[in-house]
Amino acid sequence: MRRKCTDSLIQWKKNPHRHPLLLQGLRQTGKTWLALDFAEKNYKNTLYLNLETDKPVADYLSVSRPPQDALLFLEAYAEKPLLPSVSLLILDNIQCVPELSTLLATISLDYPQYHILAIHRGLASPELYNKNDFHIISLYPLDFEEFLWANAEYALSREIRRHFSTLTPLGKELHQKALSQFYLYLVTGGMPLSILEYRREKKLLMVPDIQQKLLELILSDISSQAPTGMTRHCQNAWLSIPAQLEKSSRRFQYSLITKGATAKTYEKPLDWLLRSGYALACRQTSLHLYPTDCGLCARVLGVPSYQLLTGSDTPAARACTETFLAQHFTRNGYTLSYWSSGNQAEVPFLLEKEGRHIAVDYRLTPHQKTRNLTRFRAEMNTNAEMYLLSVEDFREKENYHIVPVYAGFCV
């Protein structure tokens, strides 16, 4: 499946001043596949070592070594030569050997001719992997555009981008087709295995089973990676996020995680989940939290696939749609916050990136009255761009743009 990150990998290869590349992301987002596919298409030979399963390598690298000794050992273990420019060394699951960051940074200084790609499960600690020593790329679940590519809907993705740039209607037929694909994406989400399962026979019957296995793997990762004494709290907090999105209030409440839960008990576990990439945060006076994938959100909530495919405006559909938006805005590099005016109005997403500010509201019922953006502009006296993401086709309003919800990846 075509991934947008591939372009960044190619740019890294061409950079004469490259640092080791750190490819990070949650389990099963496609990191290893992407790295091996990139290596096969761009290098003559690949040295792939998995520090989770290649125990002799992990044990050797966990002790401080001179760079030359380490490179000799890796060549001998892989039984392949590491050649300048034409070989790629891939070290998978480097979170198993935290000490490795220092060695990789040193190799980069002493032997810049070698190309090294490291894969980290979860988000790597900035204390270990400094941006001055590593080129860091985060891999997320497939976004909606990549989902369209995976299903050979290249023309549809191009049309969505073209009409977003002109804000002219897509037309009834294409708009309905894009909406159907969007509802389908809410079910599968962006995890590669879920999409592959659907694509295999164009059926959804086994997708929930795949997602359940993914959930179990994520909970297992949380269990193995969470700080000592926090495992159960981290798992409880993570499972509570989708359920709390079904409430009328978006504010995440500690008391709803489990009976008797308090901020004192759950502040640190939640902070760890956010720093490790297991959840997305939208901050202001309170905290709004989202899972990293709308398909997994649907699975935790137990919402039937047929319900999402109908496009019905239900609490579960709103939870999955907001997760879809948070997932895409984060993927596009925005910092997420929100705006509220007491109990009168709320804009769920205020986006900021490099000085650019965008206000985003959404609705799942056509022509449903929404005054949040108008109220926001009047009270804040701002010239921020404003979008209402809707199930309607593209069109312009006086104060904001109406954009189909499936075009969230264009924002």
Automatic annotation (TrEMBL):
Name of the molecule in the record: ATP-binding protein
Record-linked SUPFAM superfamilies: P-loop containing nucleoside triphosphate hydrolases (SSF52540)
GO MF term set: ATP binding
UniProt KW keywords: ATP-binding, Nucleotide-binding
Residue stretches making up the AAA domain: 18-148
InterPro entries: AAA_14, DUF4143, P-loop_NTPase
A Pfam family the protein falls into: AAA_14
Domain DUF4143 positions: 221-360
